[in-house]
Amino acid sequence: MSLTLFAVYFVACACAGATGAIFSPGAWYESLKKPSWVPPNWLFPVAWSTLYILMSISAARISGLAGENELAVLGLAFWAVQIAVNTLWTPIFFGLRRLGGGMLVLTLLWLSVFATCVLFWSVDWVSGLMFVPYVIWVTVAGALNFSVWRLNPGEKPVTL
């Protein structure tokens, strides 16, 4: 695995993660009704940091195997899609306060993460395995987004 490739992928992940600092949950999120099973706030940065490291390692491994391998190239294309969609969720959910829009983004994110996982697994099972925690986390995030959306039907989005 190339450390340079790892660094490039990690920078992409860090840019996605930076949206959390720009559009922080704050008092608005704290005031929302949430399900009893919502993870504690401290878990989110720990989970995302771990996932971003695993995502970067797996993409760097696949990049090293890409060459003429169409599945590796397609997997990397889906990696790019999932990190772009990942970047959209925080501004839509926390920035614009669009709970339904966040759900749409999470659905697209889940599909692109799952596709990346399957494609990576078909090229290098270790890289695919490193994406499994991400699939699980996005599944939980989707359930949480859906629950918050349903528990707060009158929540008004930010108007521009």
UniProtKB/TrEMBL annotation:
InterPro entries: TspO/MBR-related_sf, TspO_MBR
Keywords: Membrane, Transmembrane, Transmembrane helix
Topological relation to the membrane, as annotated: Multi-pass membrane protein
Keyword Protease belongs to the record: no
Gene Ontology cellular component annotations, sorted alphabetically: membrane
Coiled coil residues, start to end: none
Main location: membrane
Keyword Transmembrane helix in record: yes
Protein name as annotated: TspO and MBR related proteins
Lineage: Bacteria, Pseudomonadati, Pseudomonadota, Alphaproteobacteria, Rhodobacterales
